[in-house]
């Protein structure tokens, strides 16, 4: 299940990310802002519960969020998406999973994982700006499921059709959110037109 979130602000900021001359500080800022803007759509179906409260003037029957939210950035580049979302969901817990793509084989290697307890009754948002072959996201989701998560949303900024197909095949229960679905991968597994290596551009390691 794929949702491509279309909004002029998101598209404008994504254009800044795509420009090859964008500085690290602007790249970082725009990744965070796009994640925050995407959060409105991603949180649209969060479960709510009825509550009775008192305003300064009367009783009020209303609703509030009922499930916990856990954000799991895929290191490194997913880290850039945390702040924008956590500003809107200040009670969200944050787990981490470290994966990198072997540059020869493009296969994902897991090098770190640390999750909060109670993944099973939380809405888990896996954050990674790039969904290319889908190998990293698929492997990350597998580990997260093995740790008990049941409701998982994959939040990426740019995706390739190959990556979307991989997640739909491996994890048909996972909702995928993108800000843009690009046209294809090149022979090195980079998204075309894409924005280059997200981790390197975010952390200035080019
Ligand atoms: C990038 C990106 C994803 C992965 C996507 O990470 O952040 O995790 O590639 O590619 P895939 O869909 O083909 O698996 P990278 O491996 O470059 O690691 P880094 O974030 O540490 O730079
Ligand atoms: N990882 C990136 O950072 N960029 C791509 O285009 C593909 C994988």
Mean pLDDT: 96
* Uncertain parts: none
| Radius of gyration over all CA atoms, rounded | 17 Å
Order of helices and strands: EHHEEEHEEEEEHEEHEEEEH
> What is the helical fraction, as a range of percent?
25-40%
Q: How would you sum up the global shape?
A: globular
Instruction: Report the β-strand fraction as a percent range.
Output: 25-35%
Number of strands: 15
Keywords, please?
206 residues; alpha/beta; eight-stranded mixed sheet; three-stranded parallel sheet; binds 1-O-pyrophosphono-5-O-phosphono-alpha-D-ribofuranose; binds uracil
Task: Provide a short characterization of the protein structure.
The protein has 206 residues and is of the alpha/beta class. It is built from 6 helices and 15 strands. Strand 2 (48-54) and strand 3 (59-65) form a beta hairpin.
Structure description:
This protein has six helices and 15 strands. Helix 1 packs antiparallel against helix 2 (24-42). With 206 residues, the protein is α/β, with parallel strands linked by helices. The protein is globular, with a radius of gyration of 17 Å. The strands form four sheets. Strands 1, 4, 5, 6, 7, 8, 10 and 12 form an eight-stranded mixed sheet that branches. The chain has a three-stranded parallel sheet with strand order 9-11-13. It has a two-stranded antiparallel sheet with strand order 2-3. Helices cover 31% and strands 32% of the residues. The mean pLDDT is 96. 1-O-pyrophosphono-5-O-phosphono-alpha-D-ribofuranose is lined by residues 74, 76-77, 99-101, 106, 108, 128, 130-137, 163, 189, 197-199.
